[in-house]
């Protein structure tokens, strides 16, 4: 077993009755990686996590962890931790007892128990809160208790289901950094589920983008952000202007225009972020149908022969007035070439 295949899913098929939610998934996760499972609602993220945790029996395929086949190992015998979205803390137990709970079940006691619980609480920065009940903690602190409770069990893999979704915006930012710190310091392999691309890009070493039960793309945040392989991923990571390319024509629905410039062979589509569209010069014409000031930049919505286009330029540049015509360019060199489009 190499470290790159620390957790390995092979041809894993996951079904609910006759409905296949995840068909034949192949996936390798390295030791010590922080991985995000990213995708829209219903794409199979939770189903995949449940299978790794042992809460769902695969219809076929296998799961190996640290060289051991755990496909049929019961959930409570797997060295896999699970942190729920809802934290699932015991309300009547204080912080210390919540963290000690699983260890006590395993028969850990005395000094050993005390040392491990205190170490767990220290890891998440909650040493001073041992006697508080969950209701006396903020959402972020409850999340930390939940994390400590899983970490003290020393799992080989820790799964986190939408770990930040119940937190307000400020706490979410704080917990992003905190989760990363705990993961890097402990070296525990972690997989977290999210439908928030910003969260995945900010935290993960590697992102797995899922769509309809299939892996659409795997890559580092930089690869996913800069080099999406398909229109689906490009849309998901905020390209906003995503067009099919067919016989040298850019297309959206009924609309099409000539593309100026050459693209790599087998390009099925092109995607531009709003900031990479040139406004004020270029071979194309559009009509300004919306403009909004966004601090350092100004955003434009244009009606064009290619449908609606979103552009963004420096706010210090002269404003293109609402209703007026404006020239624009779609610079091929600034576009992301898409190898797949519309599922093809
Ligand atoms: N208990 C179930 N019984 C039947 N079908 C289910 C069940 N749970 C999930 N599904 C179906 O399996 C597919 C994948 O669902 P899953 O919950 O894994 O998606 P998800 O990506 O985690 O979505 P979300 O972000 O909304 O949690 C969906 O089509 C869903 O309807």
Automatic annotation (TrEMBL):
One of its GO terms (cellular component) is ATP-binding cassette (ABC) transporter complex. Residues 7-237 form the ABC transporter domain. One of its GO terms (molecular function) is ATP binding. Transmembrane segments: none annotated. Pfam families: ABC_tran. It comes from the Bacteria. Keywords: ATP-binding, Nucleotide-binding, Transport. PROSITE patterns: ABC_TRANSPORTER_1 (PS00211), ABC_TRANSPORTER_2 (PS50893). Belongs to the ABC transporter superfamily. This is ABC transporter ATP-binding protein. It comes from Thalassospira profundimaris. The lineage of its organism: Bacteria, Pseudomonadati, Pseudomonadota, Alphaproteobacteria, Rhodospirillales.
């Amino acid at each position: 077993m190499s470290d790159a295949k620390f957790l390995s899913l092979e041809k894993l098929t996951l079904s609910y009755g006759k409905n296949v939610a995840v068909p034949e998934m192949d996936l390798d996760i390295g030791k010590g990686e922080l991985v995000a499972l990213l995708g829209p609602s219903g794409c199979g993220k939770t189903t995949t996590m449940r299978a790794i945790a042992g809460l769902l029996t695969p219809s076929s395929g296998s799961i190996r962890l640290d060289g051991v086949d755990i496909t049929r190992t019961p959930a409570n015998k797997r060295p896999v931790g699970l942190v729920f979205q809802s934290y699932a803390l015991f309300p009547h137990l204080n912080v210390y007892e919540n963290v000690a709970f699983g260890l006590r079940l395993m028969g850990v006691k005395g000094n050993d128990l005390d040392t491990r619980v205190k170490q767990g609480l220290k890891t998440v920065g909650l040493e001073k809160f041992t006697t508080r009940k969950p209701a006396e903690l903020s959402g972020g602190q409850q999340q930390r208790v939940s994390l400590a409770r899983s970490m003290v069990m020393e799992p080989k893999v820790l799964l986190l289901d939408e770990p930040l979704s119940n937190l307000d915006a400020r706490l979410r930012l704080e917990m992003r950094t905190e989760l990363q710190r705990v993961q890097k310091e402990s070296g525990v392999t972690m997989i977290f589920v999210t439908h928030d691309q910003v969260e995945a890009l900010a935290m993960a070493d590697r992102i797995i983008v899922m769509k309809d039960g299939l892996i659409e793309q795997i890559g580092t945040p930089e690869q996913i952000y800069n080099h999406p392989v398909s229109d689906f991923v490009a849309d998901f990571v905020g390209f906003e202007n995503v067009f099919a390319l067919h016989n040298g024509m850019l297309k959206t629905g009924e609309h099409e225009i000539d593309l100026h410039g050459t693209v790599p062979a087998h390009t099925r589509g092109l995607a531009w972020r709003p900031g990479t569209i040139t406004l004020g010069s270029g071979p194309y014409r559009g009509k300004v149908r919306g403009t909004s000031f966004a601090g350092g930049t100004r955003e434009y919505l244009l009606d064009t022969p290619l449908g609606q286009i979103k552009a963004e330029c420096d706010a210090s540049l002269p404003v293109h007035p609402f209703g007026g015509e404006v020239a624009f360019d779609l610079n091929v060199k600034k576009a992301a070439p898409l190898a797949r489009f519309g599922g093809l």
